[in-house]
């Protein structure tokens, strides 16, 4: 629904009353159920579990295909400082070294948290950093 310039929302940012919130809750939950009415019961159960925010135990911890033996809990080197990260970003002109968009994340090329040599560090955007860690792509040294 497009609004014209003259359109003013009816509640103008005021909070909804408790009665209105309850009606909205009932309407949205019915809409959720209606949207999945054609699904088998097993699928509905899985959707229900995912909507409650509970972790999927079958994919957590050691059972997850991306599990690397707890590597993410290893501490960084004492050389890993805000000053070092800022200098790497400035060196790369705050530009992602993969897609050349704006970047703000400093990445270890060899995935070794202890190796803080500036030649091993590059600036990436959040998107490329996620892709690189998801696929474990090797970035040219």
What are the main properties of this structure?
2 domains, His-Me finger endonuclease fold, elongated, about 5% strand, about 140 residues
CATH class of the largest domain: Alpha Beta
Order of helices and strands: HHHEEH
Secondary structure tally, helices? 4
The helicity comes to 25-40%
The CATH architecture category of the largest domain equals 3-Layer(aba) Sandwich
Strand pairing plus helix content: what structural class?
Answer: mainly alpha
* Strands, count: 2
In short:
With 141 residues, the protein is mainly α. It is built from four helices and two strands, in the order αααββα.
Please, could you describe this protein's structure?
It is a single chain. With 141 residues, the chain is mainly α. It folds into 2 domains: 18-54; 72-135, 3-Layer(aba) Sandwich (His-Me finger endonuclease fold), CATH 3.40.1800. It is 35% helix and 6% strand. It contains 4 helices and 2 strands. Strands 1-2 form a two-stranded antiparallel sheet. The longest helix is centred in the first third of the chain and has 18 residues, at 18-35. The model has no long low-confidence stretch (mean pLDDT 79).
């Amino acid at each position: 629904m497009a609004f014209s310039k003259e359109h003013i929302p009816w509640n103008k940012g005021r909070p909804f009353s408790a009665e209105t919130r309850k009606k909205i809750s009932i309407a949205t939950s019915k809409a959720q159920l209606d949207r999945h009415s054609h699904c088998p019961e097993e699928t509905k159960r899985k959707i229900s579990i995912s909507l409650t925010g509970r972790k999927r135990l079958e994919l957590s911890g050691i059972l997850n295909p991306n599990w690397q033996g707890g590597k993410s809990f290893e501490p960084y080197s004492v050389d890993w400082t805000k000053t070092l990260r800022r200098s790497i970003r400035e060196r790369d002109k705050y530009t992602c070294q993969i897609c050349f968009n704006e970047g703000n994340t400093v990445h270890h090329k060899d995935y070794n948290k202890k190796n803080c040599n500036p030649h091993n560090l590059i600036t990436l955007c959040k998107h490329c950093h996620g892709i690189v860690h998801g696929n474990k792509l090797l970035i040219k040294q």
